[in-house]
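WARN retry 2 of 3 for item q-0093 after timeout on previous attempt; input resubmitted unchanged.
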Amino acid sequence: MSGAHGTAFGRSAPGLLARLRPRRVDVVELRAVADRVLPGLAGGRLRAAVLDRRGAGAVLQLEEDERRVRVPLGDLAEDMTAAGVPPTGEGMAAALTAWVAARPVTDASAAREGVAVVDWADAGRSAVG
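OK item q-0093 returned
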């Protein structure tokens, strides 16, 4: 049953494997998407920017009140690839928007909801203090 295409299904095994592997999110393309999307996500007390670091690559930084989150853009691209984010402008924009929405809550925001913010008690982040 394997005909000219190499399998009973008319497709070669390498082609099938290529479709099953997630396509890589490119850091340069992610930077372009971030530059376009972040200004619309920032506002109020939230500041969002991509910062260039000499010899270390760009970092995406979110700041809101006392909270600051920094992640290397290359790490974010790898995480998006592993999560199966489509490497399209729309896919990366949606993933970036979801990532910003999942940022750590500020103390003031938690207090408005009646929740006290605690911190990690150990460097391994396995015990809450």
